[in-house]
Design goal:
Order of helices and strands: HHEEHHEEHHEEHEHHH
Oligomer: single chain
Number of strands: 7
Radius of gyration: 18 Å
Helix content: 25-40%
Shape: globular
Structural class: alpha/beta
Mean pLDDT: 81
Strand order of the largest sheet: 4-3-2-6-7
């Protein structure tokens, strides 16, 4: 086993096992939980590589998408006609913030209120890129959130690979075991301060190392002008049941893709991370 595999490999850091154990426990809904068609965590990259302009584009893109005819129709056209959303930002392994807590959306008025809160939210600049930390935090948000559904989805967007905290694959696999679907929105815009850690095939990294579950998909953004349309398309797929869509993908650890590429890029430039197990 290489020194990288020993440091980051498919094994999981010791501190992570108790967290994963809790996440794998059955999710028992409270008696007064509101039933919705889907519980969706929007997990948005706010690491140091994201400029204020990029963060604003993301917020406005989500706000515009949520109030679009396509997305509102997807929400109201569901079996129950209501969904639960929360918007969080993330960066390092222990750096995540809830921007908008769980909110039920059942009509345009609800969507507009959510969008207004989102646009008025301040920027945050953090450090590092821990997709594994973002997934763990997002998964914990489903616990005792006041809602229950047959679909729990994490939508994670980011402009680079995991380079902090534990490896992303064991976390991804643990969440899939629980039945959570993970979709990816890789930002391949070649802008910002993190180009030294960017990947030309970030979409493939997300496809092999991050996403999974019934109907899971990757929707890359190559230019910021594409972002609003990409978000609309993504939300329609997530808020309408896409389990039988053409995007269905079952991840495999035998694909040959190096899911530790982000950790190796960081180590090459800065040396071993202090969080290495």
């Amino acid at each position: 086993m290489s020194r990288h595999a020993k440091r980051y490999g498919q094994g999981t850091a010791s501190w992570l096992w108790p967290v994963l154990a809790l996440l794998l426990l059955p999710n028992v809904a409270a008696a007064d939980a509101v039933e919705v068609d889907v519980e969706l965590v929007l997990a948005v990259d706010a690491s140091w590589s994201m400029t204020p302009r990029e963060q604003e584009i993301q917020r406005r893109g989500y706000a515009e998408a949520l109030t679009s005819e396509e997305v509102v129709s997807a929400i109201t056209g569901g079996f129950l006609g209501r969904v639960a959303l929360t918007y969080v930002v993330w960066s390092g392994h222990s750096t995540q913030d809830v921007v908008i807590d769980w909110t039920m959306i059942s009509d345009r008025k609800d969507a507009e209120a959510f969008a207004e809160l989102l646009i008025s939210s301040p920027d945050g600049i953090y450090q590092r890129t821990s997709i594994s930390g973002a997934l763990l935090f997002a998964a914990s948000r489903f616990e005792n959130n006041g809602f229950v559904s047959n679909r729990q989805v994490i939508d994670v967007s980011g402009d680079g690979p995991n380079n902090d905290g534990t490896a992303v694959v064991p976390v991804r696999d643990a969440l899939l075991e629980r039945g959570i679907v993970i979709n990816g929105l890789p930002l391949m815009t070649k802008e910002g301060r993190g180009q030294i850690f960017s990947l030309d095939d970030l979409d493939e990294y997300y496809r092999h190392c991050v996403i999974g579950g019934p109907g899971a998909f990757v929707l890359p953004v190559l230019d910021w002008e594409q972002f609003p349309m990409a978000v609309r398309q993504k939300l329609v797929l997530e808020l309408a049941d896409s389990s039988g869509s053409q995007f269905s993908y079952t991840p495999t650890v035998s694909s040959g893709y190096d899911c530790l590429v982000g950790e190796k890029l960081w180590e090459k430039r800065f040396g071993p991370t202090s969080l290495s197990p």
